[in-house]
Design a protein that fits this description.
Blueprint: H1 17-21, E1 42-43, E2 49-52, E3 57-65, E4 71-80, E5 91-96, E6 102-106, E7 110-115, E8 120-125, E9 132-139, E10 142-147, E11 151-158, E12 171-176, H2 179-182, H3 195-216, H4 222-229, H5 233-239, H6 243-263, H7 272-283, H8 287-301, H9 303-327, H10 336-356, H11 364-373, H12 378-388, H13 391-394
Antiparallel strand pairs: 1-2, 2-3, 3-4, 5-6, 6-7, 7-8, 9-10, 10-11, 11-12
Helix pairs in contact: 3-4, 3-8, 4-5, 6-8, 6-9, 7-9, 7-11, 7-12, 8-9, 8-10, 9-10, 10-11, 11-12
């Protein structure tokens, strides 16, 4: 157990009970967070566990035998990384280098070093959108970091000013390997061959699980989402540094999907009934994304942010309703804007019924119900929706 004791061979017959049973000799409670700095916590040359807890403290945890013969774990050294790790992000990789420093990386793309001798923590933010895909690997020649865009190798620190260059302070220089070079990278085997495609599929699966779980319960944890996606929690942190980054991923996904759906709609025609049917049918496939954002509004996004995201769709719905009211095909007892919000609520409520299995719809029944809700004649609504949803249109 102790690094100070000489190694010895113990005959099997004389092994103590804890070797045979795996019984824990000591425990130390840590703040729960990003899986001890990713699953890449490591033992140093003094048999201390090096890890980062949820408070972003870089810890060296040692063990010792007490006077009564029992063992205990204790924090031998701690260095705060809070100033270097953005809120909502988390450390996902740790590795010691050959100069006595600890390299670390966060899921959202911050790479840095911690010098426990001086207390200095220095960081570099990767380009926007670039995330640390797996971990940090160190060697005497330098350090490698695998990201979603490249493998950053031969990383070194330089001292600016006076023409001097050294291994400490202030800027980081990163050389990016070519796609061919990345095939030999050992920090993330998935970067080879079809790894990048698998990465995209995993990210999409996590987003889908997050949309499902957070849409059902906005308080769902990252562990709940990881389980629903069929991955370990560490994988969620690899793609999204924390809850806020995951929510931003959902926002980006919803914004893009909503933009594609609205862009694909034809130029508005003179018939408001047909336009409203097209509108509902176009947005039906992305309705779950919108519903999730509305569920997250109170605690994660705020009404103003959600309105910014859904604004283009809401404005289009209001414009169609205004045309329908002028044409006399929609009722005028409710102004266009609140009537559009009521229509939004109806559509999302019917979508939730489909998700819950209490109703079956491919969007056509909801489109018909929406037209009737804004005042269109029932037979006319059903006929227009049937015409728009006929097989040859759906296969186009």
């Amino acid at each position: 157990m102790s690094a100070k004791r000489a190694p010895s061979v113990v005959p099997a017959a004389d092994w103590p009970a804890w070797i045979c049973t795996g019984t824990s000799l000591a425990r130390l409670a840590l703040t729960k967070g990003s899986l001890l700095g990713g699953v890449y916590a490591y033992l140093d040359d003094k048999d201390r566990l090096v890890a980062v807890d949820a408070d972003n403290a870089l810890l060296r945890i040692a063990h010792r035998e007490k006077a009564d013969g029992e063992w205990e774990l204790y924090v031998d050294r701690a260095l705060s990384l809070s100033a270097a790790v953005p809120e909502g992000d988390a450390v996902t990789g740790l590795a010691p280098d050959w100069k006595g420093r600890v390299w670390f990386a966060t899921g959202a793309g911050v790479v840095g070093t911690a010098d426990e001798a001086t207390g200095a923590v220095r960081t570099l933010a990767l380009p926007p959108g670039e995330r640390v895909e797996n971990s940090v690997s160190t060697a005497p020649a330098g350090t490698a970091v695998a990201t979603t865009h490249a493998t950053c190798r031969s990383t070194r620190w330089s001292r600016e000013g006076g023409g001097q260059t050294g291994l400490l302070p202030t800027s980081v220089q990163i050389s990016r390997s070519s796609p061919a070079d990345r095939r030999s990278d050992m920090t993330d085997p998935d970067l080879a061959g079809g790894g990048r495609r698998r990465t995209r599929l995993t990210r999409a699966r996590i987003l889908e699980a997050a949309r499902r779980e957070l849409g059902r319960d906005p308080d769902s944890s990252l562990e709940d989402i990881a389980e629903a996606a069929g991955v370990v929690r560490r994988t969620v942190y690899d793609h999204f540094g924390g809850r806020s980054a995951l929510v931003e991923g959902l926002v980006s996904d919803a914004t893009e999907a909503l933009g594609r759906a609205l862009t694909a709609m034809p130029v508005p025609g003179p018939d408001a009934v047909t336009e409203m049917a097209r509108f509902v049918l176009a947005l039906w496939p992305v309705g779950d994304r919108c519903r999730t954002l509305l569920r997250l509004a109170p605690q994660d996004l705020g009404a103003e942010r959600v309105n910014e995201i859904l604004g283009p769709a809401r404005e289009m719905a209001t414009a169609i309703i205004e045309r329908g009211q002028r044409q006399g095909v929609f009722h005028t007892s409710v102004p266009p804007d609140p009537l559009g919000r009521a229509l939004e609520g109806l559509t999302l409520a019917l979508l939730e019924c489909v998700n819950a299995g209490t109703w079956s719809d491919d969007g056509t029944r909801t489109a018909t119900a929406a037209l009737i809700a804004v005042g269109a004649d029932g037979d006319l609504a059903a006929a227009r929706v049937r015409r728009l949803a006929r097989p040859e249109r759906l296969s186009a």
